[in-house]
Write a structure and sequence with these properties.
There is one protein chain. The chain folds into two domains: 133 residues, Leucine Dehydrogenase, chain A, domain 1 (Rossmann fold, 3-Layer(aba) Sandwich), CATH 3.40.50.10860; 131 residues, Rossmann fold, CATH 3.40.50. Helices cover 35% and strands 20% of the residues. The protein has ten helices and twelve strands. The chain has a six-stranded mixed β-sheet with strand order 2-1-3-5-6-4. α4 packs across α5 and α4 packs across α9.
């Protein structure tokens, strides 16, 4: 039996064990998926334990997506450009890092057949979660990205180019575009009555995307739905990145059918 898991600091509400259990069963792979709650000062010890115990692969969540990189022997192109790793595989006692959040962003966008080429996108929030979104949008020919931050002067991204502008929330009122994407935790359970922006902002866009997956219909997405906009929740991304991770661990093809099956199965619990 192979062992997998999720590295993080506080993981009690994680859906990852359930999602990965389904993936392993559907792929006829014998394995177990564990939660690794590790304090910041024990990260190096954890990495050594992975090698000692021959853990085949693990996912990475906050606060370790960047700090894990110094312990890796190889980092994929997309993870290097994003500046974060969320998937690590052990092979021949070497650690290989990838970023499957990038793939998960694609699953979200493609779930509603959203066209990105020559479009304008607004990204709410400048934390770690926005990096995979920015990279995916740039790779798929977005014309313009506005990153909205409460402290725009403090942002330092390794991917800034002429297609990206950084603005504050006051300046957002003057912007109109095609997509508005929330990468902040605002609206996440239990604070379900909060939205990062109001309906007057949302009305300026055709598509609203929220990386938050609990609840599946955040206040932000409700505002979009009420105005007849396309609304996409973060559960697509969560499931997509997990399926991609297991495909890397076990050299499997990505199954869109499996992604949809898991999405529908998890969605039932939120209704």
């Amino acid at each position: 039996m192979q062992f997998y898991g999720l590295l993080g600091e506080k993981l009690s509400h994680s859906l990852s064990p359930r999602i990965n259990k389904i993936i392993l069963e559907k792929n006829n792979t014998e394995g177990a998926y564990k939660l690794f709650e590790i304090p910041k000062d024990r990260l190096e010890d954890f990495v050594e334990s992975v090698k000692l115990l021959k853990i085949k692969g693990f996912n990475v969540t906050i606060p370790y997506k960047e700090s894990i990189m110094e312990y890796l022997d190889y980092i994929s192109d997309e993870a290097t450009r994003i500046g974060a790793v969320n998937t690590v595989m052990l092979r021949e006692n070497k650690l290989y890092g990838y970023n499957t959040d990038y793939f998960g962003v694609g699953v979200m966008i493609k779930s509603k057949n959203i066209e990105l080429k020559n479009k304008t996108a607004v990204i709410l929030g400048s934390g770690g979660a926005c990096k995979a979104v920015i990279t995916y949008l740039l790779d798929n020919d977005i014309e313009k990205i506005y990153i909205v931050s409460r402290t725009p002067e403090s942002i330092s991204l390794n991917m800034l180019n002429k297609r990206i502008s950084i603005i504050n929330y006051d300046e957002l009122n003057e912007i109109k575009g095609n997509l508005i994407i929330n990468t902040t935790p605002v609206g996440m359970y239990p604070n379900v009555d909060k939205s990062v922006v109001n309906g007057d902002v949302v009305k300026n866009y055709d598509v609203a995307v929220d990386l938050v997956y609990n609840p599946t219909q955040t206040k932000f997405l409700q505002l979009a739905t009420e105005q007849g906009k396309v609304a996409i929740g973060g559960l697509h991304m969560l499931v997509g990145q997990a399926v991609k991770s297991q495909a890397i661990f076990n050299n499997k093809e990505i199954s869109e059918e499996l992604i949809n099956y898991i999405y529908d199965d998890i969605l039932k619990d939120f209704k």
